[in-house]
Write a structure and sequence with these properties.
Layout lengths: L3 H4 L20 H7 L10 E2 L2 E2 L34 E10 L4 H10 L14 H7 L4 H12 L14 E5 L2 E5 L18 E4 L1 H9 L3 H6 L13 E7 L8 E2 L5 E2 L2 H21 L4 H19 L20 H5 L5 H7 L12 E2 L7 E3 L2 H4 L3 E5 L5 H10 L10 E5 L5 E3 L16 E5 L5 E5 L9 E7 L4 E2 L7 H7 L5 H9 L6 H7 L2 H12 L5 H19 L17 H7 L1
Keywords: DNA-binding, DNA-directed RNA polymerase, Magnesium, Metal-binding, Nucleotidyltransferase, Transcription, Transferase, Zinc
Subcellular location: Nucleus
Family: Belongs to the RNA polymerase beta' chain family. RpoC1 subfamily.
Length: 565
């Protein structure tokens, strides 16, 4: 039986060290070069087998686990990586990812001869070449050339471009002489720029002008940003799912590619039949819509493509970007062991280097500790507690013997299997004093991940160790009665009003009165307060006190404070 190594022997080419990675836009000629077939049929299967020229052409690879063979390399679905095909479009189409750059380039070049609107003899031209960043250079020339209404060389009118979703609208300026023979009629001043006309303008731009605008013609040209040949991804990228009723459920990308092929074939037939231009525009718009929603189905101003069930199509853009995309969700994102996450609260009762861990987490996280003469008794006690220890205690999950055997304590019945020997490793539960790595997202630098000592019974931190002390103290700290008495003696948690009230002589007298009145009932306190009020009115002749009464003082002030109590 031939193995994969027999079919694909190792290359004898010398191994080179990678120096750099260069991204580029795919040249339409390269798309054809890397393609193994041209897709021009909207039918996928013919007599139960993949149809040649369809979206499951055997030359692009196979997803048939029952003897399917790729006709390009002769491999099955497990060894074949898949190969691209291509669709030759009847007319050029805009790319949703490049249309903004296309508009920027159009503002820099002439509408009639595709030359840069800024002459090389102009000092501003040399000033723009001094900019090293390509984006800054294109932005510089667009800022200078975008305001020109007429070409300085020929005097031809230069339209003003505006992007509207996937349409480029242009408006020509009012002619200098409206009665001239070559003056543009008023009805033609506002037009929609077709992708075909934009492709012709961009294709005529010289390499020197492309370099001046920041393009490296070895890797990208402005006309490559308009689609003429659409790459078709291989079946392994868009696999079909076999249902219980022996029917196949195709991927969303395959459904969109079917609609693209159908719309492209309709447009080809209309072009061959010589259909009028205003009727062709509808077929062009339909093909543009399917290509746009195939690339990105969330563009503003564009109705999303949907399945028959009403579910939106998951386009290429949605598969790559976002938290659930291919990059963050599959390549960079991963699930790991020995980690936990939850909401934290502040706690002033633990040290600044301590971290409170819930029991549910502590009994799940383990640490492999080697048995020595110094910790043998402690580890033996944890092993005896087992994976489900009594409340308030920790235990162990398993024992790893010196010969590599693992003993799961959940299934151990005899005491002999629980006996530890020197050199064994015990995977014990997290205990107080263990060092753990603790981070707060987003972890943008190494200071976001710090070491703490685990302990306590819920995930919390010391108040002074949190970034927002006020929030931690208000939400995570509720003082008890004893804490309130300590706060009266200490000024750590006192506010400015408390300090001010403590410094007043009246409040000290009032606090002394309050201490003497601790044994009085509420009725006696009310009667004493009314008696003090009448005495003050008689002495002062019903005049108001010149000193303002303090509200909310720490120790209370006079009868008003007693009345509040």
């Amino acid at each position: 039986m031939a193995t994969t190594q027999d079919r694909f022997p190792f290359s004898k080419a010398p191994v080179k060290r990678i120096k750099a990675v260069q991204f580029s836009v795919w040249d339409p000629d390269e798309i054809k070069k890397y393609s193994v077939c041209r897709v021009d049929s909207a039918e996928i299967y013919e007599k139960g087998k993949p149809k040649a020229g369809g979206l499951s052409d055997p030359r692009m690879g196979t997803m048939d686990k029952f003897g399917g063979i790729c006709t390009t390399d002769g491999a099955n679905m497990y060894d074949c990586p898949g190969y691209f095909g291509h669709i030759e479009l009847a007319k050029p189409m805009f790319h949703s990812g490049f249309i903004k750059t296309v508009v920027r380039v159009l503002r820099c070049v002439s509408y009639h001869d595709s030359k840069l609107l800024l002459d090389k003899s102009d000092p501003k031209y040399a000033l723009g070449l001094k900019r090293t960043k390509p984006e800054a250079r294109l932005r510089y020339f667009m800022g200078i050339c975008g305001s020109k209404k007429f070409d300085d060389r020929s005097g031809a009118p230069q339209p003003k471009y505006r992007l509207d979703s996937m349409k480029i609208l242009m408006e020509f300026p009012v002619p200098k002489d409206p009665h001239a023979a070559d003056a543009m009629p008023e009805s033609e001043r506002k037009q929609e720029l077709s992708a075909e006309r934009a492709y012709e303008i961009l294709r005529r731009i010289s390499d020197d002008d492309c370099k001046a605008m920041g393009f490296d013609v070895r890797y990208v040209r402005p006309d490559w940003m308009i689609i003429t040949n659409l790459p078709v991804p291989p079946p392994p990228v868009r696999p079909s799912v076999m249902m219980d009723s022996s029917a196949r459920c195709e991927d969303d990308l395959t459904h969109k590619l079917i609609e693209i092929v159908r719309a492209n074939n309709h447009l080809k037939r209309q072009l061959a039949a010589g259909t009028a231009q205003h009727l062709l525009n509808d077929f062009v718009a339909m093909l543009q819509y399917h290509i746009t929603t195939y690339m990105d189905n969330t563009l503003p101003g564009q109705p999303p493509a949907q399945q028959k069930s009403g579910r939106p199509i998951k386009s290429i853009s949605q598969r790559l970007k976002g938290k659930q995309g291919r990059i963050r969700g599959n390549l960079m994102g991963k699930r790991v062991d020995f980690s936990a996450r939850t909401v934290i609260t502040g706690d002033p009762n633990i040290g600044i280097d301590e971290l409170g861990v819930p029991w549910s987490i502590a009994l799940n996280l383990t640490f492999p500790e080697t048995v020595t003469p110094f910790n043998r008794d402690k580890l033996q006690e944890l092993v005896n507690n087992g994976p489900h220890p009594p409340p308030g205690l920790t235990g162990a999950k398993s024992i790893i013997r010196a010969d590599g055997r693992r003993i799961n304590l959940a299934y151990v019945r005899s005491d002999a299997d629980r006996q530890l020997e020197l050199g064994d490793r015990v995977e014990r539960h997290l205990s107080s004093g263990d060092l753990v790595l603790f981070n707060r997202q987003p972890s943008l630098h190494k200071m976001s991940m710090m070491g703490h000592r685990g302990g306590w019974d819920f995930l919390n931190m010391d108040k002074s160790d949190s970034e927002d002390e006020g929030e931690a103290s208000s939400e995570g700290f509720q003082p008890s009665d004893e804490a309130e008495e300590e706060d009266d003696e200490s000024s750590d948690y006192s506010s400015d009003e408390d300090l001010e009230s403590e410094g007043s002589d009246d409040d000290e007298d009032a606090s002394e009165e309050g201490e003497e009145d601790e044994g009085l009932s509420w009725e006696e306190l009310e009667e004493e307060a009314r008696r003090d009020d009448r005495q003050r009115d008689l002495e002062e002749g019903n005049e108001e006190d010149e000193r303002p009464r303090k509200r909310g003082g720490g120790g209370g002030g006079g009868p008003a404070a007693k009345r509040r109590r």
